[in-house]
Amino acid sequence: MNFDPRFSGRKFASVGTRPIRPDGIDKVTGRARYGADFNMAGQLVGRVLRSPHAHARIVKIDTSKAEKLAGVKAVITAADLPDLTDGDAAMYDVLDNCMARTKALYDGHAVAAVAAIDARTARQALKLIEIEYELLPHVTDVDEAAKHTAPLINDAIFTEGLEEKPVKPSNVTKRSQFGHGDVHQGFGQADFIVERSFKTEQTHQGYIEPHACVANFSSDGTADLWVCTQGHFVYRQHCAQLLGMEASKLRVTSSEIGGGFGGKTHVWAEPVALALSRKAGRPVKLVMTRDEVFRASGPTSATSIDVKIGARKDGTITAAEATLRYSCGPYAGSWAEIGAMTAFACYKLDNVKTVGYEVLVNRPKTAAYRAPSAPMAAFAVESAVDELAKKIGMDPVDFRIRNAAQEGTRSSYGPVYGPIGIGPTLEAVKSHPHMKAPLGKNQGRGMACGFWFNFGGQTCTDLNIGMDGSVSLAVGTVDVGGSRASLSLVAAEELGIDYAQVKAIVADTSSLGYNDMTDGSRGTFSSSMATISAARNAILILRERAAQMWDIAVDDVVWEKGHAIAKGEKHGNLGKLSLKEIAVESGKTGGPIAGHSELVADGAGVSFATHICDIEVDPETGATRVIRYTVVQDAGKAVHPTYVEGQYQGGAAQGIGWALNEEYIYGKDGRLQNAGFLDYRIPVCSDLPMIDTQILEIPNPNHPYGVRGVGETSIVPPLAAIANAVSNAAGVRMTHIPMSPPRILAAIEAEREWSK
Amino acid sequence: MAGIAVSTTINGDAVEYLCQPDETLLDVLRDRLGLTGAKEGCGTGDCGACSIILDDRLVCSCLVLGAEAEGRRVETIEGMAHGDTLHPLQQKFLEHAALQCGICTPGFLIAAKDLLAKNPDPTEEEIRFGLAGNLCRCTGYDKIVRAVQDAAIVMKGA
């Protein structure tokens, strides 16, 4: 059946209500099974040996002593994961990141692994592996690494995207550019110009559940993998490719996931666990320690960004320009490119230019972190926008409203916008009571906007109707924050039945067709679209069965509010049949009733948010306190508003941590000095106030219910909103994230010196 | 590597096990007794995901040795509900959507239970400081605090 995804403007019965999630009881009773909560008979414990050096050639690995230790069943190195990537450079990087081949490229890079009968034996075995390293010069700072004089991390990399092909290798892997118009001409028309440079430090997604998996490689060449992941289908493809298997022979089951935020979209330990299991001939459980999570998984880019924005006296921006340098870890990425795309996406600009540079450093391979790359670009741009408003003498909200993108605006990264929410979020902020709340001594208010693309992608969903009238919904997108509840609501809505009749599960890779990674805020957007499609297909069959039961033509049967109804006067005495009544008879009318859907969910509507926050700064110590925080964001349609609020609040909290405190700290030796939650401190309960939310609903025209993704945008504005608040409270422009007490104090003291 | 024989009480039941001298109580609960409700988020006492109550005291079970449970009372998340009946905190966490991924939830519930046992009528600030030893990365804590406030009201009325 042809599926019509267009927004229909229907009235909702289930969508928009707030029922309890189907996986809730297991999660409050401790029964839910996460990555590390699964065990198999005969299972071994896997452990990974990691490089203590930031950059070193691996001269020799001797595993013989470890292999001889009683209880050790397998020891592997890169030799056990041969290169089968067949020229696929990106997959080769993934392979090299899973197990260093010739060089260790960062502190924490895996170099060998063992499987043993218990954790103690495995730990002992790691100590018996002898590795001879030849130390190489390293570089961990993004600006240092971009210099011509920096130690080269990969001498086979020449900068892509330059007009002239470079003759020397570089740590800058790629240059990308976006924009339109003529910025030189635009700056010529400006009455005021703000030009500033900004830096942000590297952060980690900080999910509370470390990466964990159980791999079971069978002697018949098939394998099973239980793993906490945001995308079990993608993990299957990647693991199979790296291990030289057919993907169909690897079955991947996604466990409950204890947080991902983009960090569980990449394989690290899983190919290693499979290789260990293959070599040992037994199941292997591999769980990262928190130290390993920080040193070897995640993190986001550290950045260095230059921004220049010009405007006329009347508040119209005439030109905007940014140069963005993003660290990628030791492998090529496209992180600056995304930053360059998102930087000015909130605004209607005649002249705009952004240039991104991807920079290699001796740090862990950069991974996605919730709207990856956008928060740093927004920090730089929104800080400059605030400063420019101040220079002109305009209210920062009014200045943004004047320049906000609208339907029909050509975005700074290319496409022309449909109906969007940036203007409405700004108008909502303008009239929000938060803006009138009184500020105390040393307190400042800041606000900022944020944008994220959102994504749809390949999606496959099954909807099976049981003979008792229950509906089982099998989806292939991982539930990272309540999507089983929202998708059950959507199935109930489309079928016209009670939410309680529907139970959604996340199916494994052998039970359902391919699904893309649960990223890009696509979980509810794309799987709800597939659920609606599957439900419509099921309704077609339900109508056919009802027609059969009544012995009338199917065209005379319509589906309304969970019932088949015979239409037309000639069928006036037939009454109606409920979904359950039809399901009970299904064995006699043609067998099971189900609806399937396979689609590419196009048209994920772009997402905008505006945040307001009040910060108190202690001028003596530089310490900060978040006094008030408000999130205003467009959801398109909030399917389960409580979980939408949760996404807004969670993104804001992560942004607050990033803005004020979180950062990777490297020593001169290139080693990470704060690989634990004590020293890499994420916000705790007593650090935060209640986080107020306002959900706007500007329907996405490309989704039947108007849904947009909501997961990521909420982390985009906080860095800038807090920087603006701190700058207003401290009386000095903050340009370096995180704004930890020493940085704020230094800025205040420098300002005092300067004004003497 | 002779194991240490331990006799203890877990969620009201007498339990005996053998453990190694360097084995944490968290490892014993999870790997020897199959009580995987307590989670290891860090192994260093920073995240609170492994919170349990040991003789009326809230502890991180990753910082307690398995051998130290000898003769003591251990309460874990698996013992929080009475059969089919959820504890008011569990019910309020569900109603307020005080969990997203849920990995920190067992630790928060145990810590909140301990908090309300000692302070049945906490202010918002007391709740925030009382739960500051438990990390949540999903919720921003807003709905967790509200769930605990609501549960406190229900429990006072009970």
TrEMBL record, chain B:
Name this polypeptide is given: (2Fe-2S)-binding protein
UniProt KW keywords: 2Fe-2S, Iron, Iron-sulfur, Metal-binding, Oxidoreductase
Domain 2Fe-2S ferredoxin-type span(s) in chain numbering: 4-80
SUPFAM superfamilies the UniProt entry points to: 2Fe-2S ferredoxin-like, CO dehydrogenase ISP C-domain like
UniProt KW Iron keyword: yes
GO MF terms, alphabetically ordered: 2 iron, 2 sulfur cluster binding; metal ion binding; oxidoreductase activity
A Pfam family assignment: Fer2_2
InterPro entries: 2Fe-2S-bd (IPR002888), 2Fe-2S-bd_dom_sf (IPR036884), 2Fe-2S_ferredoxin-like_sf (IPR036010), 2Fe-2S_ferredoxin-type (IPR001041), 2Fe2S_fd_BS (IPR006058), Beta-grasp_dom_sf (IPR012675), Diverse_Oxidoreductases (IPR051452)
